[in-house]
């Protein structure tokens, strides 16, 4: 079981159409070899049965590395596959219902698209039973559509100063801006195309991880 207080490092969010040099399973295994800390399976278009099969396959790949698999949005897929947790957005199943169903040991993350999302969260739940908050998006990106204006680096710092929960930064993050995002306060870097579309996902993961640990350690 992952130490949920240590949500840090490189966090891969999958996108099969962006896996242009390797298939999804290969990308995930290479990222694991490169030192990725978490993997989130995100499938916006596929049917439920395929989603479940993918989740089970990735769990088998990640198990030898003791790397948790989180499921984007779908609590049913998380439960059926035996994944370690879910990542939820503002329009998904309420996070407190997910916590009730999954229990205390599951990893549960929530995306915040605006400062108002944060204020609403703490107004209703001053001490939310969440394992991390995701700043989404930090920068404008084609992989996250229909989102609110980007938070920017100042937004990451603002949220870091508001909460004791770990901050996962996602949206437009790549090797060239990773250090700035970490220095702004991110505890974890969630990346999509920077790993999924890389010719060498293992090397891409290693490079991002080195930047993270050179600053945080």
TrEMBL record:
Listed GO MF terms: magnesium ion binding; thiamine-phosphate diphosphorylase activity
Record-listed Mg(2+) binding positions: 73, 92
GO biological process, one term: thiamine biosynthetic process
Every Thiamine phosphate synthase/TenI domain range: 10-195
Binding positions (2-[(2R,5Z)-2-carboxy-4-methylthiazol-5(2H)-ylidene]ethyl phosphate): 141-143, 172, 192-193
GO terms for cellular component: cytoplasm
Catalytic activity entry: 2-(2-carboxy-4-methylthiazol-5-yl)ethyl phosphate + 4-amino-2-methyl-5-(diphosphooxymethyl)pyrimidine + 2 H(+) = thiamine phosphate + CO2 + diphosphate; 2-[(2R,5Z)-2-carboxy-4-methylthiazol-5(2H)-ylidene]ethyl phosphate + 4-amino-2-methyl-5-(diphosphooxymethyl)pyrimidine + 2 H(+) = thiamine phosphate + CO2 + diphosphate; 4-methyl-5-(2-phosphooxyethyl)-thiazole + 4-amino-2-methyl-5-(diphosphooxymethyl)pyrimidine + H(+) = thiamine phosphate + diphosphate
Keyword Metal-binding belongs to the record: yes
Domain of life of the organism encoding this protein: Bacteria
Keywords tagged on the record: Magnesium, Metal-binding, Thiamine biosynthesis, Transferase
Pathway in which this enzyme or protein is active: Cofactor biosynthesis; thiamine diphosphate biosynthesis; thiamine phosphate from 4-amino-2-methyl-5-diphosphomethylpyrimidine and 4-methyl-5-(2-phosphoethyl)-thiazole: step 1/1
Cofactors: Mg(2+)
Entry keyword Magnesium: yes
Matches recorded under PANTHER family: THIAMINE BIOSYNTHETIC BIFUNCTIONAL ENZYME, THIAMINE-PHOSPHATE PYROPHOSPHORYLASE
Similarity comment: family membership: Belongs to the thiamine-phosphate synthase family.
Its job: Condenses 4-methyl-5-(beta-hydroxyethyl)thiazole monophosphate (THZ-P) and 2-methyl-4-amino-5-hydroxymethyl pyrimidine pyrophosphate (HMP-PP) to form thiamine monophosphate (TMP).
Protein name: Thiamine-phosphate synthase
Source species: Leptospira bandrabouensis
């Amino acid at each position: 079981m992952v130490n949920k207080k240590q949500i840090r490092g490189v966090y891969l969010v999958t996108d099969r159409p962006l896996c242009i040099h390797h298939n999804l399973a290969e990308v995930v295994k290479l990222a694991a070899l490169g030192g990725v800390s978490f993997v989130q399976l995100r499938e916006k278009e596929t049917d439920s049965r395929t989603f479940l099969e993918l989740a089970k396959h990735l769990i088998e790949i990640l198990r030898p590395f003791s790397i948790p698999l989180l499921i984007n949005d779908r609590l049913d897929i998380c439960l059926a596959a035996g994944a370690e947790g879910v990542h939820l957005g503002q329009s998904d199943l309420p996070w407190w219902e997910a916590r009730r169903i999954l229990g205390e040991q599951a990893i549960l993350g929530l995306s915040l698209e605006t400062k108002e999302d944060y204020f609403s969260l703490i107004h209703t739940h001053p001490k939310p039973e969440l394992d991390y908050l995701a700043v989404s998006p930090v920068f404008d990106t084609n992989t996250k559509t229909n989102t609110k204006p980007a938070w920017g680096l100042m937004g990451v710092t603002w949220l870091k100063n508001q909460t004791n929960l770990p901050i996962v930064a996602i949206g437009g993050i790549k090797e060239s801006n990773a250090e700035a995002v970490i220095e702004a306060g991110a505890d974890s870097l969630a990346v999509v195309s920077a790993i999924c579309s890389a010719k060498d996902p293992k090397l891409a993961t290693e490079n991002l991880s080195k930047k993270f640990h050179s600053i945080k350690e």
